[in-house]
Amino acid sequence: MAQIINGKEVSASVRKAVAEETAQLRDSRGLKVGLAVVIVGNNPASRVYVNNKKKACEEVGFQSFEYALDENTTEEQLLDLVNVLNRDVRVNGILVQLPLPKHINETAIINAISPEKDVDAFHPVNVGKIMIGDYSFLPCTPAGVMELIASTGTEISGKTCVVIGRSNIVGKPMAMLLLHKSGTVTICHSKTQNLKEICQRADILVVAVGRANFVTGDMIKPGAVVIDVGMNRLENGKLCGDVEFESAEKVASYITPVPGGVGPMTISMLMRNTLTAAKQQAGI
Ligand code: NAP
Fold first, then answer.
1. pLDDT of 135-180, one tens digit each?
2. Residue 120 in contact with residue 141, Cβ under 8 Å?
3. Residues lining ligand 1, CB < 6 A?
4. Cα-based angle 87, 89, 90 (whole degrees, multiple of 5)
5. 53 labelled catalytic
6. Ligand 1 centroid to 192 CA: how many Å?
7. What pTM does this model have?
8. Cα Rg of the chain (Å, integer)
């Protein structure tokens, strides 16, 4: 039976470390850390994420600046705001909550954020840095997954790692981070053939597909570390991962639950990135 990786616990320890360093920098150097969160429109899920980010800022001692813009905000108006925030010295990190309304070009907005304040690590400069392994910010969800794997004591070097999903925010950077730790990495996607056989070879399996119960126990190598990034809302309102937990936990050595696995890590990694940004901007 697999051991459960407790994302809430790992996340709490990351936040505690960020809070301690933030307090220490404030007391010793008068440094204040600030995160600007921009939300456009009334997407209820985005609203929940933004509120959680605000709460996390309070918890670790950051200032948070929220900009809740009307659904009809134009791309130009949003670009103007990003430019103001790029110049605002109180703001160390800028997060524009995605998805944006359809009339706004997300790429144009991401590209306008100063790479030094791009705490989501979505700007092409930061994406390129991740590729070459010379990075300041790691994209939050894959960085959280790396913390969870580390919490199990599993050595990645030399291991067969399989990532299902090739999105820019999860799958691709995830594969890069595993590669930087010398894992032998395979990325799978919707056109992959023999997915089951590929998964069965994985010592470390990271699943980011967005389909409930997509990976079943018979696809998992005995003793594998299984990380379930998926967050799927079932018809009964329950949250469910991409991995069928009941069959998978019988085969894996470690497994993340949903909820309570990867989810809690993402915002904690955002806090860490914001602290890193503040230190870099202060020359620390
Ligand atoms: P996405 O952009 O929709 O990407 C899904 C990926 O899954 C795509 O690369 C797609 O392949 C692949 N896929 C789809 N069907 C497949 C199949 N039958 N076999 C193999 N691969 C298949 O999703 P995402 O943004 O990466 O998110 C993935 C999941 O993680 C979602 O459930 C999301 O809610 C969750 N998520 C959680 C967090 C968190 O904090 N816990 C953060 C971000 C995302 P193609 O490229 O070929 O289409």
1. 888 999 999 999 999 999 999 999 999 999 999 999 999 999 999 9
2. no
3. 141, 164-167, 169-171, 188-192, 195, 208-210, 229-232, 262-263, 266
4. 125
5. yes
6. 14
7. 0.96
8. 19
Distance in Å, CA 177 to ligand 1 centroid: 17
Write the DSSP symbol of residue 116: G
Angle, alpha carbons 117-120-123 (nearest 5°): 70
Pick the catalytic residue from 118, 120, 203, 242: 120
- Residue 60 CA, ligand 1 centroid: distance in Å: 30
Coil, helix or strand at residue 282:
coil
How many angstroms separate the alpha carbon of residue 163 from the centre of ligand 1?
Answer: 10
Nearest-angstrom CA–CA distance, 71 and 101: 7
Determine which residue's CA is closest to atom 48 belonging to ligand 1.
190
Q: Is 230 exposed, middle or buried (0-12, 13-18, 19+ CB in 10 A)?
A: buried
Given this model, what pLDDT does residue 112 score?
98
Q: Which two tokens stand for residue 273?
A: 């990135």
For residue 98 the two structure tokens come to 């995605």
Distance in angstroms (rounded) separating the CA atoms of residues 222 and 224? 6
CA dihedral 101, 106, 109, 113 (to 10 degrees): 120
**CA 187 to chain CA mean position, Å:** 18
Residue 136, pLDDT score: 86
Measured from the Cα of 261, ligand 1's closest atom is 41
Measured from the Cβ of residue 283, the count of other Cβ atoms closer than 10 Å reads 5
Ligand 1 pocket: which of 209, 270, 273 to mutate (most atoms within 8 A of CB): 209
Closest C-alpha to ligand 1, atom 40:
263
131 CB-near residues (< 8 Å, 6+ apart): 176
- Tell me the CA distances in angstroms from 38 to 67, 259, 281, one per residue in order: 5, 26, 21
